[in-house]
Amino acid sequence: MARKTLVIAESKEGQCRHVSFEAIAAAKQLADGGEVVAVLCGDQVEAFGPILGYYGADRVLIVENEQLKSYTPDGYKQALMQVISSEQPKAIVMGHTAMGKDLSAGLAARLDCGLVSDITDLEIGDKPLFIRPIYSGKAFEKKRINSEMLFVTLRPNNIAALEKDETREVTIEVFDVVVKDLRTIVKDIVKKTTTGVDLSEAKVIVSGGRGVKNAEGFKPLQELADVLGGAVGASRAACDAGYCDYSLQIGQTGKVVTPDLYIACGISGAIQHLAGMSNSKVIVAINKDPEANIFNIADYGIVGDLFEVVPRLTQHFKEVLQQA
């Protein structure tokens, strides 16, 4: 059954987030032949319109307003409710990001529609089924939305984006909104992490645990991540010990990631950490303890000192990539 589907796209640090392209791919399935409309809110984001079209959007709505320069729940809900009221979509898709988690629940409540969050796959039909992990990734459940409108958030790195086609022609429209009476105003943003690959969307993650011993111990991990074009993560134990900022934490109380390659260095494999990374496509564990729990879920295991193993891996990858 064809259904008009709205994709709420995101931009960050001057780039369109990759999960938005994945959301368009999921929306194409959900639309089942219907129109896929991407909407992007912000200030000076019109340049992203064609890119969303290259990845499959049939039409792009640009919502520019100085009140939307920084994300606030009030501002974005006001703007998007005006878009939804005008477009009348049958389904809405967005990324399960920090913004997506915050925004989707409020929008679904206002729309009085069902919401399935953190989906990793979907089965299309007259009443689509949405698949999401439960019990910290130990099992999966299938959910069906009974309301007239469907609303889902998509976990990054699970549904592949469509191949970029720069020959696609897409209609780009500017959608004017009224944003007022904001209860929250962002004055300034202070970042604790360095710029680089977004951890939640990274295809390669090199993660450190208590075994890195101190903040300096993350340097060889960062070097390996840089060579592989990836990001650095951490276990809660490493964050609690003060080795790194909590923004790098992966686990049940941190970020949930599903990269193509996850390299765990000096991580014992506590259940709380496994909940955040166990669905990675390939897991490599490096640990001095051959009985460490992380080896039970690893595809490849290296028993050894990470300070000897990681630099060797870095050097080897450099040589291989230079030859490629």
UniProtKB/TrEMBL annotation:
GO terms for molecular function: electron transfer activity; flavin adenine dinucleotide binding. Binds 1 FAD per dimer. The keyword Nucleotidyltransferase does not apply. Its cofactor is FAD. PROSITE patterns: ETF_ALPHA. Keywords: Electron transport, FAD, Flavoprotein, Transport. One of its GO terms (biological process) is fatty acid beta-oxidation using acyl-CoA dehydrogenase. FAD binds at residues 210, 235-236, 249-253, 266-273, 287. Pfam families: ETF (PF01012), ETF_alpha (PF00766). The keyword Hydrolase does not apply. Residues 5-193 form the Electron transfer flavoprotein alpha/beta-subunit N-terminal domain. Belongs to the ETF alpha-subunit/FixB family. This is Electron transfer flavoprotein subunit alpha. It comes from Pullulanibacillus camelliae. The gene is etfA.
